[in-house]
Design a protein that fits this description.
This protein has 454 residues and is of the alpha/beta class. It contains 12 helices and 23 strands. It folds into 2 domains: 295 residues, Aminopeptidase (3-Layer(aba) Sandwich), CATH 3.40.630.10; 135 residues, Aminopeptidase i, Domain 2. The structure holds manganese (II) ion (MN) (2 copies).
């Protein structure tokens, strides 16, 4: 089937709107590179737009705008609809964690008078892509007395940055013969952190000096890293890409592209017919096992809380799920013209051709896919078409080339009609992922149409 390219179809005004939407998108993603920062920034924007913490409210009426936070790392926003909750709700779920390099519990060490941080990567990365680039450091450190210290260094002008070094080509004879997996061992992803000694010390002078700086700047001791979340992420802002500025390059677009657009969509809606919910989940890139992931019961409890606060009994929660509709908004794989061999060209998604609908995710023979019904796919098609959304179908790649899953399964298990629909990305999971401004804006328009549809 022929795909429509948004740039060929949109009028000048829509193109301009897409560009100006992406200015806000760029700013937001450039400064919110961790799930904690994404949560606090979205709460701030939410509150400015009339959203209130559900914990402070005893009763909810239609039109109420509410949110709930889970351990500062997951958030959910909702706008109560005109129809009773038992008529179903509209959910969009995305994730706000992205692949990155985390500190190990005891990270600081010295080797040959250089100080380093030991790391363990978070999510599925091609390790070599993360070498030799400037890295920023974001840390939340909790002292034994409960005091919270924040580390943020690398993204303010004049801040220093960090890096992971790589071998020079001149001495890479053996490395080059290895597979990519073996050539870059995970235990070598050590972050170069400092090189000046503390001359008052007899041994581990560089490490001592580094710890002295951390004590002075952030009030933390070496053992405080034990109770910390320290993440190294690519330094710098998201940038326009291409001479026509039609694309974007920057960190964390999987899945903050879908998180930002679905969050913006829920902020934009006023009086929806059905209750609308936007879930921002954490821990997707490590398999959604933890208490802030889509797997946790946080969302279920939120629905139950809404149900009770709108005057229903908990026993009616099944009716809510039965009639609800959901979009699992996670980024999709775009056709990369340099690697056509991994795609079925008849089914691959193209950059600029709008938001993607994925009938099947998973791997090989659909293993792990949620498989939305034909009825529900038709329903989504209708919503998108009636609202002039530029959209296309997508699949991860050729049938036996690999695969991947999304958090869709955690909504589908309730019997909620769920479909995967997200924004296409090139260089997924690399430090600098690439998207099209047309696709970002199509995502926003599609999610808004889903929330507003009758
Ligand atoms: Mn994702
Ligand atoms: Mn991912």
């Amino acid at each position: 089937m022929e795909r429509k390219n948004a740039w060929e179809i949109w009028n000048e005004k829509t193109k301009k709107d897409a560009f100006s939407f992406c200015e806000k998108y760029k700013d937001f993603l450039s400064v919110n590179k961790t799930e904690r920062k994404f949560v606090s920034a979205s709460i701030k924007t939410g509150e400015k737009n009339g959203f209130t913490n559900i914990d402070t409210l005893k009763k909810l009426h239609s039109g109420a705008r509410i949110y709930k936070i889970n351990k500062n790392k997951q958030a959910v926003f909702a706008v109560i609809g005109e129809k009773p909750l038992t008529e179903g709700v509209r959910i969009i779920i995305s994730h706000i964690d992205s692949p990155r390099i985390d500190f190990k519990p005891s990270p600081v060490y010295e080797d040959e008078s250089l100080a380093f941080f030991k790391t363990i990567y978070y999510g599925g990365i091609k390790k070599y892509q993360w070498l030799t680039i400037p890295l920023s450091l974001y840390g939340t450190v909790i002292l034994k007395n409960g005091e919270k210290k924040s580390i943020e260094v690398g993204d303010t002008p004049d801040d220093p940055v960090f890096t992971i070094t790589d071998l020079l080509p001149h001495l890479s004879k053996d490395q080059m013969k290895k597979t990519i997996e073996e050539g870059f061992p995970g235990e070598n992803l050590n972050i170069l952190a400092s090189s000046m000694p503390d001359i008052s010390k007899d041994k581990e002078k560089t490490k001592s000096n580094l710890l002295k700086i951390f004590k002075e700047n952030y009030g933390i001791e070496e053992e405080d890293f034990l109770s910390s979340e320290c993440q190294a992420v690519p330094a710098g802002k998201m940038r326009d890409l291409g001479i026509d500025k039609s694309m974007l390059i920057g960190y964390g677009q999987d899945d903050r592209a879908c998180a930002y657009t679905s969050f913006s969509a829920i902020v934009s809606i006023q009086k929806p017919s059905e209750t609308c919910i936007c879930i921002l989940a954490d821990q997707e890139e490590i398999g959604s096992h933890g208490g802030t992931s889509a797997y946790s019961l946080f969302f279920q409890y939120f629905i139950e809380e809404i149900l009770e606060k709108t005057g229903y009994s908990l026993s009616e929660v099944k009716r809510v799920y039965e009639k609800s509709k959901a979009i699992s908004a996670d980024v999709a794989s775009l056709l990369d013209p340099n690697y056509k061999e991994v795609h079925d060209l008849r089914n691959a998604a193209r950059m600029g051709c709008g938001i993607c609908i994925e009938k099947t995710t998973g791997a090989r023979g659909k293993y792990g896919s949620i498989e939305p019904t034909a009825e529900y796919i038709a329903n989504i098609r209708k919503i998108f078409d009636e609202n002039d959304i530029i959209w296309q179908t997508a699949e991860i790649g050729k049938v036996e080339q690999g695969g991947g899953g999304t958090v869709a399964t955690y909504l589908a298990k309730f019997g909620i009609d769920t479909i995967d629909s997200g924004i296409g990305v090139l260089s997924m999971h690399s430090p600098y992922e690439v998207t099209s401004k047309a696709d970002i804006y199509s995502g926003y328009l599609a999610y808004r149409a889903f929330y507003n549809s009758l």
